[in-house]
Description:
Layout: H1 3-16, E1 33-35, E2 38-40, E3 52-53, E4 57-64, E5 73-74, E6 81-82, E7 85-86, E8 89-90, E9 101-104, E10 122-125, E11 135-148, E12 151-152, E13 155-160, H2 171-177, H3 181-191, E14 198-205, H4 206-223
Parallel strand pairs: 10-13
Antiparallel strand pairs: 1-2, 2-6, 3-4, 4-9, 4-11, 5-6, 7-8, 9-10, 11-12, 11-13, 11-14
Helix pairs in contact: 1-3
Amino acid sequence: MNKSIVGFIVLFASFSCQERGIRSVPIIQPSHQKEEYSIKDSVHFLQGYPAMVGDSLINVVVEIPTGTLEKWEVNKENGYLELPEIDGIRRVVDYLGYPGNYGMVPQSLQDAAVGGDGDPLDILILGPPLSRGSLVKCRIIGIIRMLDNGELDDKLIALPAKGYLENIRSMENLEADYPGIIEILTLWFENYKGKGQVEIKSIGEKEEAFQVLQEAIEAYQNQR
């Protein structure tokens, strides 16, 4: 078996485990109205929360918990968290489950005018599963720069502000303490949509990630 695949299985098992001295990750669970394929918050998921919390932390809305396959996403128009359909079929990833909690940064935009996909900035929170629709304060450690069918589709990499891997502050730090994780993440993103759909351009540190974040926040503000 490919060593990277073996590594992914080991990584996924460790991230899903609630042992190893992991403290509870603080989350905000808004007052939700839940239906089978839709979650409505008391405020608009995209518009209702600021991107930044102080100077160094960000808000993240969790769309897809670690290890799951259903591709929930925030509807930019109505602000609900939904499991959309394509040709009458609910969106499900045809691959291994997500290697972290996938979500979006509120009040951000990957601007289509400069090659982005026109959606909020995506982010992957490493760690055990967090509740779908929860709001999590996170610290950015880096970024995976990538193209999805020719469009910019960058993925910020983050950790919860408290409660998990609090000693990790950068991608370099992550790779040194947990060898192979970055390779596993890039392997997953290269293949989760099928062969040849996604191209990994580069791996960046948190300084580059914050630059991309600031550009996405400005793009969102400029469109309003």
